[in-house]
Amino acid sequence: MRWTQTLLTTLREAPAEAEIASHQLLLRAGLARKLTSGLYTFLPLGLRALRKVEKIVREEMDRAGGLEILMPALQPPELWEKSGRITAAADVLFQVKDHQDRRWILGPTHEEVVTALVAGEVQSYRQLPRTLYQIQTKYRDEIRPRFGLMRAREFIMKDAYSFDADEESAKKSYEAMTQAYRKIFERVGLAALQVEADTGVMGGASSHEFCVVAVIGEGEVVTEEGGSYAAAIEKAVGRPVERKGGEGKLEKFPTPGIRTIVDLEKKHGVVAQDQIKTLVFTNGKETALVLVRGDDEVQEVKVGKVLGAGYRVAAEAEIKVAMGASPGSLGAVASTLEGKKVTVVADLGLKGQKGMATGANDNGFHFKGVEVERDLKIDQWADVRKVRDGDISAGGKKLKVSRGIEVGHAFLLGTKYSEALEAKFLDPEGKQQPAVMGCYGIGVTRTLQAVIEVHQDKDGIRWPASVAPYTVMLVTLDLADPAVKAATEAVIASLDKAGIDYLWDDRDERPGVKFKDADLLGFPWRVTIGAKSVAKGGVEVKCRRAGGMEMIPPADVGVWVQNKLAV
Amino acid sequence: MRWTQTLLTTLREAPAEAEIASHQLLLRAGLARKLTSGLYTFLPLGLRALRKVEKIVREEMDRAGGLEILMPALQPPELWEKSGRITAAADVLFQVKDHQDRRWILGPTHEEVVTALVAGEVQSYRQLPRTLYQIQTKYRDEIRPRFGLMRAREFIMKDAYSFDADEESAKKSYEAMTQAYRKIFERVGLAALQVEADTGVMGGASSHEFCVVAVIGEGEVVTEEGGSYAAAIEKAVGRPVERKGGEGKLEKFPTPGIRTIVDLEKKHGVVAQDQIKTLVFTNGKETALVLVRGDDEVQEVKVGKVLGAGYRVAAEAEIKVAMGASPGSLGAVASTLEGKKVTVVADLGLKGQKGMATGANDNGFHFKGVEVERDLKIDQWADVRKVRDGDISAGGKKLKVSRGIEVGHAFLLGTKYSEALEAKFLDPEGKQQPAVMGCYGIGVTRTLQAVIEVHQDKDGIRWPASVAPYTVMLVTLDLADPAVKAATEAVIASLDKAGIDYLWDDRDERPGVKFKDADLLGFPWRVTIGAKSVAKGGVEVKCRRAGGMEMIPPADVGVWVQNKLAV
Questions:
Q1: What is the topology classification, in CATH, of domain A251-382?
Q2: Which residues contact B86 (CB under 8 A, 6 or more apart)?
Q3: Which residues on chain A are in Cβ contact (under 8 Å) with B40?
């Protein structure tokens, strides 16, 4: 393709709203353009890269036995009522109303539709297992779309759904899909971590996220130094660094004006790790106290798992009614909870701790010398703290918390959807059974941008060859020179013959402009054809990632690149 | 692909709602399934055929210099306000409301979005011409979706948009696109007529439709027997068969109770072609009479072109107020229109006609002996009649009216959108000019179904090889027989080697069931591997379209099919 015949304008500066490098480069390199917040048009170059990502996804899905289908984006809300997600996922659903006042949902995902499909198509265990997938445009009503394709209103997903006759078989399908995911991310040039994850609104028995570590990531992942443990922060388990606390007598002491952990440390010298942090949750009817060490944070997703759905952090007024005291003076010392209807959940990190301080449920008073098991009313022990950098793993290794971009997600769903939407089959004994399901998503457009985020430097993108819009940027200088023209034709012929795709910068521009743009666009190899080098019988080939420059005879360029790609 | 590993269930009977053959076959052959009215899921086989159509479309678009992009389906209504289509196209627009009460449009087409894009990307005549295209899911709020993929709420379109510096260049881009269209339809196996068409709500200077003649078509096309003239019915021009009418005196006569052309013929012996049909149109303020011969129909689209936008057939009450008489007694005899503010448009077919009858604008009275030019008040002559089967073309040939499926449409748009959305460029003199545009659509999913509609018989589909889900149906009988197994493996190896795709019917079913399904699915070749023929050293190859049966050695099947495909 000739530059002067495609639609490609590079920008010196990215619009101010593009806060992160990959978003800036997406715009600066002419890959995409914003239509309006959260909606992007793929220009020819961006679409080429996107199609290469899609092709890799499709190849690995097919290899893993996936069957490609294509479901409508418009969905009848009745299906979402059956699964119960019409309310659970209401926040992100775009609702459509037609001229006959019927409502439709613009699908953010397709568990309901695919399960209803399979309910109609699969009657017997002989038709199982099956994994169906599609690569399709999805919609999410994002209140604050940001970071370009990272969090958009409209985006491309690969979503897959496995249907099995039993749990064991479902686990095999799950493993086949996650293996395909590992391969896909490797092929597109992403070192994605497969981490244990929370199942969230999707439901199901277990789940993994695929995360690319990047400072701009919207999630957090926990990894073990020198070990294999990896989990999303919502799910991660760690042991805090040990504290030392001595024996002592439970003693109430006045703490006027103290409202926070920091206050108590500053004014009374009780360091945060010697305090107990007490949070109040409510479901509107019942009240629960959640206790963690003072230097820890409560992980609300974990609390949700322990207390059940519907619990939230209580408002100050609710706290006063339930506890008779204000935040800052709360605690779970047994004597102070008498007559109060509260359930107390204590973090495992508090087990065996002594010599701690906690609120007295009496404004302006705390206890010191608290021995957790001796003094507190504890109804349930659970892991409810948020893992911190430096925590210790179950295997005794150090844990590290990093920010990550979630590029994929897998859920072992069980029978939640197949029961609700009656995807049942006859087992060998002739009994009706619900199919055991899994679902698997890759954010295809997000993956594309994650590739750019990871592979860039101050000059521009550094595409992995597998998904670069073109493999070669052909830069012709001295366009009017007949020898240069002949050399360019020879290079083009050799690239065509080798099946290497290229963009030919045939613009009438200065070398500096062309080189700057070649670095910005960042295709794996730049081939420069100028009078000087041609006179010496060669053209300059430069690798965008490794740097370095080689002189290659024009007619050999295709094979040379082909050999490099094969490495 | 093995039948037992894909998702494929054939149906003996199609659901009752599937009224036409292609819709029935779509469902019976397991190509697609209905989610709900107007929304279909493509199953693996249907998606394969769809992708083959898309690939052909893409190849021909690229060959014609098109640049593929991908625009969002969600569009901001502000763009549609600028073009004025927010009201003009309101009927078919799905409107979306988000949680922040902002409105969005689900795009049925992308003139607005692409023009806004080009406004930002193209600054100079040096960047023109450009033709941008996409293959994308579109949405139309169809009140009555029907015929499966033919008229669906959600469907796949290839839409292209050309931008040129001047009219002459725009015509070249238009010609390149329509040529690509002809090639596309030919390659997918459709004898599509390129017919002159009305520009409708799209606007612009000229337009062509691509129509596939089929009795179930929703439109009508007019073709010349033994000539090249072809036009959509809305645009077609023809001359009615001559009538003979004698000279005579204008004479009013009583016609009590006469309300229709048929009435007057039956009760007074005035045949339809000797009558003048008078229709009243109004734009709410002004009134116009439209006259055609009694045996002709008024073509409303043509009337709209003559009278301008906003005119419609008047209601009975409006007619009485304007004309002082009821439908059935209306006419344009000059003396009866005195004092009435009406414009009269007469069809060209009435020119020179004598001895006709028409209403007297006096209930229960008509005139006979009408000589059109002598007696009527005519403000404008125009072609406003609907062409009828048997009319005569400008070249003196017989015209034929057929029903047709519209699979493609091209519009030379001019500067309507580029002016409204400011897609302007600097010409060589440094003056700002609006780009001259064209737009071009192919209904990709509709095209797929049109292929089925045209290529089928009582037993099932008869796919053209270019878009068949698979090229070969491999039917293995006697699965347990070791010689059959070996022959099957040899056939598979030869097909793989030749790059021929196939579906292997490895089901444990009776031969009759397999043959019936093979005919229903209708891939170009069926290869049957059974103990009898294998014993004779061959397998049976049957062509679905041409019939006939050949015995081929198993290892030669791949090359044999390859050779047939190359013909």
A1: YbaK protein (3.90.960)
A2: B77, B80, B93, B105
A3: 72
